[in-house]
Amino acid sequence: ETGVTQSPTHLIKTRGQQVTLRCSSQSGHNTVSWYQQALGQGPQFIFQYYREEENGRGNFPPRFSGLQFPNYSSELNVNALELDDSALYLCASSLDLNWGGEAFFGQGTRLTVV
Amino acid sequence: KNEVEQSPQNLTAQEGEFITINCSYSVGISALHWLQQHPGGGIVSLFMLSSGKKKHGRLIATINIQEKHSSLHITASHPRDSAVYICAVRANSGGGADGLTFGKGTHLIIQP
Question: Among partner residues A47, A102, A107, which is closest to B41 by beta-carbon distance?
Fold first, then answer.
């Protein structure tokens, strides 16, 4: 048990819809990152939040957006869903902004876009 | 070419065998992580390394910064070790946050 909780665990959406995925970080962790993992691939970095501010972003379009709240929980929002957005979405929390510390991962949300 | 390469991609071994999974990377890093992912998706962090060697139970991880190479070893392997093992690095980006860069993983099956 890592202390990082993601919800929902599974989700089915229709192309064009919007989705919000949630992540509760390990207690005290102020840094959270989101990753997309397509089937058979390693996770790809979407973005990172530190103390409610986005401070890093991977190669994902603007329709992928996020929020981090004062309690350091986080949301990933995806607008105008496409079939290729079907993947496992993982969040990871850390106490250290630059990942010098341990990273703790959630169980992931499996999103299917039909 | 992926910045993080793992080998082998797939490995099937018999219970009790000594297992080695390799990871090579092409960028300067501040840390390397070894992660374990079971079917269903959840990822567990096994090790975080910036130099040398770490051991936890039957697992050993080593890193050679000069050669940009790390290995994960499993001694006395057991069927419950069957999982995907992923190497991930935190690059020295010089500013800003780039997150972790992951290898594609090594799918390990330990047969009884």
Answer: A107
Q: How far apart are CA A17 and CA A70, in angstroms?
A: 28
Output phi, psi for A46, to 5 deg: -95, -65
Sheet of strand A74-78, all strands in order from the earlier edge strand to the far edge: A5-7, A19-24, A74-78, A64-68
Interface test with B, best of A39, A98, A102 (most B CBs within 10 A): A98
CA distance A37 to A4: 17
**Taking a C-beta distance cutoff of 8 angstroms, is the pair A94, A103 a contact?**
yes
A6's tokens:
């993601």
Count Cβ atoms within 10 A of the Cβ of residue A109 and give its class: 0-12 exposed, 13-18 middle, 19 or more buried. buried
Q: In terms of pLDDT, which residue wins out, A69 or B92?
A: A69
Band the pLDDT of B91: cuts 50, 70, 90. Answer: confident
The encoded tokens of residue A51 equal 């103390």
